[in-house]
Amino acid sequence: MKSYSVVGKSVERTDARVKVTGSARYAGDLVAAGMLHAKILRSPVAHAKIANIDAGRARALPGVMAVITGRDFPGIPFGTRPDIRDQLPMPITKVHHFGEGVAAVAALDEDTAEEALDLIKVDYEELPVVLTAQDALAPGAPLVNEFKGSNIAYFSDFLFGDVERGFKEADYIKEESFTSQRTSVGFIEPHACLAEVDPTGRVLLQGSKQSPYITWRHMCRALDIPLSKVRIVNPFVGGGFSGKHDPFDVDFATVRLAQVTGRPVKTVLNYDEVLAAYRQRNAMDVKLRIGIKKSGAITALRAENILEGGPISGIGPFNIYFFGAFLNIPYKIPAIEYHGKLVYSNRAPCGTVRGQEIVLAQFALDSLLHMAGEDMGIDPVKLRAINAVTDNWHCANGLIVDVSGLPTCIERAAEKIGWKASRKSRPEGRGIGFSCASHPSGTRLGGHFGSSVMLKLLEDGKVVITHGATEIGQGSNTVFCQMAAEELGLPFEDIIQGVSDSDTTIFDSGMFGDRATYWDGNATIMAARDLKRQLAEIASPVLKADPSEIEFGNQRIFVRGEPDRAMDWILAVRKAYYEKGSPLYARGTWAATDIDIVDWKTGRGNLSHGLDFIATAMEIEVDRETGQVTLVKAVHGDDAGQPINPAMLEGQANGGSAHMTGHALYEESLYDEKGRVLNHSWRDYKQPTALDVPEYFVEHIHTHDPYGPFGAKGAGEASSCSTMAAVANGVSDAIGVRIRDLPITPEKILEALKAKEGK
Amino acid sequence: MRGFGRCLINAEGLMRIDLASNFLLLGSEDLEAIEFDRPAVPLRELLETLSSRSSDPPEFLDSKGGALNQGWDIEVKGVSFALCDDRLDTILKDGDKVTIKLELLGGG
Predict the structure, then answer these.
(1) Which of A77, A106, A324, A362 could form a disulfide with A36, with the two C-beta atoms 3.0–4.6 Å apart?
(2) CA of B62: which chain A residue's CA is closest?
(3) What residues contact residue A431 under an 8 Å CB cut-off, 6+ apart?
(4) How far is it, in rounded angstroms, from Cα A451 to Cα A518?
(5) What mean pLDDT is predicted for residues A609-624?
(6) Could you tell me which chain A residue has the CA closest to the CA of B26?
(7) Residues of B with CB below 8 A from A211's CB?
């Protein structure tokens, strides 16, 4: 493996000190002269017509500067796909879920804004509530979304290979159903934003947004203003996990109130609001059927999946698509048939959570594979090794696996967890769950899904890097600085992270799908090469060489093969600035135009480079008396290509897994029969803390992705995809009961034990 | 309606436009070609016709009806819509191909 100066080193994060010392400024910390404070009035019912909103008394309250409702917007719907635009900034004719914002107040202080909410009178005419997928699909079910004539928001039917033949060739066939619950996303910082409007009417929005480009485009459409009339500047963002892509009522209301009042307006939600009314993960119902030969090789897979998604489609079509298309990894499955449906409901709107719906697909697939292996008497680790995709594997849907470290991931994870020894003996109530997963390093969703990076060379020789990928806590700023430093031959400390400002930053499509390290990393290298090209033009006459012979390293610029024929980096910088009067800027873009744009009809295509592979082994203890599950130890064999920052990579692998332990064992957003959320506070909605997760170990399986920056792949979502099946399989291994419906609670375990014992 | 191929204008004066897309053009089903009873139609009419036949009519045109809505990546006879001088009034004749792809705004 190649050795680097900066890449591959666990350097300190660029944002570590400001964050741990409390100096980082998030949207909630921002202030502006004359700023007003906004609050949102929320619907107490899940489904109702809005007969009337009377805000007169609220407007008359001293200190209240404006009150708006859905009717204060142009009424232009927006949506992720142009053929499914089914969202409004705020509802106009009906409310769709408990907690939906129906009005917003801007006042001189928060208390006055809060008091004004109580003075707004809303007349609701309640409608029957659609809670589950079954409700939504029942004949005569009430329609949830007024822009759609059906409660089926989206569907996909994919067929890869010859499934009938695959099942005929199988020596063993197993079919099972699995379900998964509604969960919240789990970022620490609640939604917040500050909006200002300048005298020309141009909006400045500073918010906790994961993908500012997506926010910008949607907001301009729904507000019916030109793109050039909105500027977005990103402050620090306290986590996203796919819960902060879209603009929400909080963003729209804040901007509209700023437009109406002519003053800056800030809105900061409390977390009860976030848990009640903002993005959650779909509930899932899936039936899987698998065919396997005596040898253990999978011959066919059939999946029927329904996702219940709340009252908007959002990125639901992605969820349906990803679930089906990425059944093709991490195992060699020659034939797959997939039918997926997304249905509307009157529960909180869904986006997705870390790992996309590959998380749910892999929970079901790896649980079923484990069950089949048990029935067939094939060791679970061996079964996965038999079917693991390998280098240059061509999946049934056309996805090409360039590099797969999965076989080694499996071997190392099994070895580290002590798999062989555990098969001979293990303590009562202890088991090991094994699971594998893979996640693409970004897919190509359309022509504008490219990444761009800009470098500005300062007079003192330092370089400012700006990109549109958005640091949300995952460390992207740090890895881009490392990559730029490596490529330019500069110390890490000489690369400075610039501000994310749409006026000066080249935007890209955003932070999601494990794409940032890969796509923006490649764009960073392109930008660095552009800068080197410009500097080479300046240095070559001095060094009496052709620009193509110039190389960079250790803050020096030199002729290839002749390190003594060199000049200092800073000298070349000064020549540019002071002799030529030409400050240097560089840019790089990367749009993976060699892979296929997503085909929504068929699910086919070479959809992604840089597949991150992982094998997770989790040691679990189950108390038979209480049903309590303790996660003892977990090992991830992780192939993320060349680690750019090993410490951060481990953080991503372990964090992605820790996040999903909650989904596996206890997280659930609970609703009553009227669609009201029951546990929308941290007192009642439990997420994992450091005390709840296992002792983690990461075995880096070091491969080299031919298209990745320095050979790196994305990381941070594959471990989310492998964890839930590892937990379910571990419980089964520990006490011999299989729980197919998440979360795996103590009550379900005790019920299953009773049933097993015939009680 | 599936699987229409290219053909010449027939005796009844029908002409066909070939279609390609990366999504189901009619919402719940696909369409590979469309017939018109005239020798030439503007792109605008093609899009309005597709919309009228769809189970969930996509809004190809903006609310004022004058421009292509954001979100559609269209090629006419292999040329990007952005480079078509006549925009929505670009004339389509028998055997021409129109490709319509989605421009997404979202991630997960």
Answers:
(1) A106
(2) A76
(3) A422, A619, A620, A622, A730, A731, A732, A733, A734, A735
(4) 10
(5) 97
(6) A83
(7) 107
- Contact: B71, A242; criterion CB under 8 Å: no
B105, A214: Cβ pair inside 8 Å?
Answer: yes
**Range with lowest mean pLDDT among A11-25, A149-163, B10-24:** B10-24
Confidence of residue A393 (pLDDT cuts 50, 70, 90): very high
Please write down the HEC assignment for all residues of A317-338: HHHHHHHHHHHHCCECCCCEEE
| Chain segment A499-540, per-residue pLDDT in tens | 888 888 777 878 888 889 999 999 999 999 999 999 999 999
Question: Hey, how many other C-beta atoms are within 10 angstroms of the C-beta on A68?
Answer: 22
Give the span between the Cα atoms of A43 and A29, in whole angstroms: 28
Which residues in chain A touch residue B25, judged by CB atoms under 8 angstroms apart? none
Phi-psi group of A377: left, alpha or beta (phi > 0 → left; psi -120 to 50 → alpha; rest → beta): left
Say if pTM beats, i.e. exceeds, 0.90.
Answer: yes
Do A601 and B55 count as a contact with CB atoms less than 8 A apart?
A: no
Sign of dihedral through CA atoms A20, A24, A30, A32? Answer: positive
Contacts of A322 in chain B (CB under 8 A): 108
Structure-token pair, residue A385:
């090794």
Domains of chain B: 15-102 (3.10.20.30)
Q: Which residues pair with A618 in a beta bridge?
A: A433, A634
Check CB contact of A303 with chain B, cutoff 8 Å: no
- Among A83, A511, A519, the strongest candidate for a mutation testing the B interface, having the largest count of B CBs within 10 A, is A83
Question: A109 pLDDT band (50/70/90 cuts)?
Answer: very high
Q: What is the signed CA dihedral for B46, B48, B53, B55, rounded to 10 degrees?
A: 130
| CB distance B19 to A47 below 8 Å | no
Best mutation target, B31, B80, B104, to test chain A (most A CBs within 10 A)? B104
Nearest Cβ partner for B59 among A85, A155, A322: A85
- pLDDT, position B7: 36
Whether the pLDDT of residue B4 is over 70: the answer is: no
The pairing of beta strand A230-234 with beta strand A203-207: parallel
Determine, for residues B107 and A598 on separate chains, whether the beta-carbon distance falls below 8 Å: no
Interface contact B56-A214, CB threshold 8 A:
no
- Read off φ and ψ for residue B93, nearest 5 degrees: -125, 175
- Number of helices followed by number of strands (H, E) in chain A: 19, 31
Interchain pair A510, B55: CB under 8 A: no
| Distance (Å) from the alpha carbon of B11 to chain A's nearest alpha carbon | 34
Nearest in space to A410 (alpha carbons), one of A430, A439, A380: A380
Contact between chains at A82 and B101 (C-beta distance less than 8 A) = no
For chain B, give the percent of residues with pLDDT over 90.
56
Q: Alpha helices of A326-446 — where are they, by DSSP H? A: 358-376, 380-387, 406-417, 419-424
Examine the pLDDT at A436 and tell me if it is beyond 60.
yes
Residue A220 pLDDT class (50, 70, 90 cuts):
very high
- Report pLDDT for B13: 65
Domains and CATH numbers, chain A: 35-127+188-239+245-277 (3.90.1170.50), 280-389+404-444+598-756 (3.30.365.10), 450-590 (3.30.365.10)
The distance of Cα A555 from the centroid of its chain, to the nearest Å, equals 37
Gap between the Cα atoms of A265 and A256, Å rounded = 9
**What digits encode the pLDDT tens for the residues B36-76?**
999 999 999 999 999 988 887 788 988 777 889 888 999 99
Residues of A in contact with B23 (CB under 8 A): 81, 83, 600-601
Indicate yes or no: CB of A81 within 8 angstroms of CB of B23: yes
State whether A245 and B107 contact (CB < 8 Å): yes
Instruction: Tell me the sheet residues that pair with B20.
Output: B99
Residue A512 has its nearest CB partner, among B27, B70, B108, at B108
